[in-house]
Amino acid sequence: MAWENKTKPNDFILLGFSQSWEVRLVLFIIFLLLYMATLFSNILVLLAIFQEPRFYNSPMFFLLGHLAFLDLGIASFAMPRALVDLITQRQIISFQGCMAQIFFLHLFGGSEMLLLMFMAYDRYVAICYPLHYASCMSRRHCIGFVLIAWLFGLLHTSVQLGFAVNIPFCGSNHVDSFFCDMPLLIKLACKNTYLLEVTMVVNNGILTLASLGALLLSYGLILYTICSQGTSGGTSKAISTCTSHLIVVAMYFGPIMFIYFQPNNHFIFDKVLSVFYTSITPFMNPTVYALKNKEMKAAMRRLQSQHLKWIKVDNFLSVMRMSVM
């Protein structure tokens, strides 16, 4: 399909993962289970935080609640449609729908990068400067951190969307993925896109590298402080916690850097890498950041006993822990 003398197509065709019915059925089952587990775990975290009055004034749980909300957004901006496409093989998405996916992906993704950085800073202050924690992480500061995360996410996605809507399309309308994104649309442009690619790399690079650098610095200082002052038992526990956090951070930032920092190249496993930051990381975040916390697990059990008696929280926590081991 080609468009002569057009700058905006009416729709795109998402190629997805495979045209084989057997493969699509297997992927549908896997992604459906992953998506349902992601929704369930993040909603459970939100409910547990909201029903605990003492969590309202806790900076850690305040930020954790916003992380769960962002994970719901990242997991849901494209996956429900992808699940329908796997079954119906109706892989056509409108131009407006494609732009909406780009907007929400970068809004939630950009905001989450900043929020993860502020969460690492929260743990850094709590461990390295406990006497100053109340003043550094007051309610006003926490609200400010969340607003900054959302504002930077909005700025980031506005830049991405501003370039996306002005890409001159005149060739194929086939997007080689299960959702729309800038690197994929740039490949469909009918003129030299070098300046656009450089701008996209700079826009993504500043946010990604700044957030990742701050995260690594915070965890490095935390480990240094604990190793120099803590007991052997506390040190091993802190190292285990920081390691699990860093693994999730690597699974989130690694694929993003690989895909967005080389827009000229496209590899067959780019689609697999995109699953990590759109599906697997939102699934793992509740386990790594919330379900390992004793207070959070106790709050979930109280939530079950008071409102959700049909949920087997202990069984669910065991399954979630096994899934990330």
Q: How many domains make up the 3D coordinates?
A: 1
The count of helical stretches stands at 12
Q: Quick check: average pLDDT?
A: 83
End-to-end separation: 46 Å
Tell the overall outline.
globular
The total strand number stands at 3
Poorly predicted regions: 1-5
Largest sheet: 3 strands, mixed
Into which percent range does the helicity of residues fall? Answer: over 70%
Examine the secondary-structure arrangement and name the CATH architecture.
Up-down Bundle
Radius of gyration: 21 Å
- Secondary structure class reads mainly alpha
In what range is the share of β-strand residues? Answer: under 5%
| Sheet with most strands: strand arrangement | 2-1-3
What is the CATH top level name? Mainly Alpha
Helix and strand string, N-terminal first? EHHHEHHHEHHHHHH
Under CATH, the homologous superfamily reads Rhodopsin 7-helix transmembrane proteins
CATH topology: Rhopdopsin 7-helix transmembrane proteins
Explain what you see.
There is one protein chain. The chain has 325 residues and is mainly alpha-helical. The chain has helices spanning 21-50, 59-76, 79-88, 95-128, 133-136, 139-164, 182-186, 194-229, 232-260, 270-291, 294-306, 313-323, and strands spanning 11-14, 92-94, 174-175. It has a single domain (11-296), classed as Rhodopsin 7-helix transmembrane proteins (Rhopdopsin 7-helix transmembrane proteins). Helices cover 73% and strands 3% of the residues. Strands 2-1-3 form a three-stranded mixed beta sheet. The longest helix has 36 residues, at 194-229. Mean pLDDT is 83; it is low at 1-5.
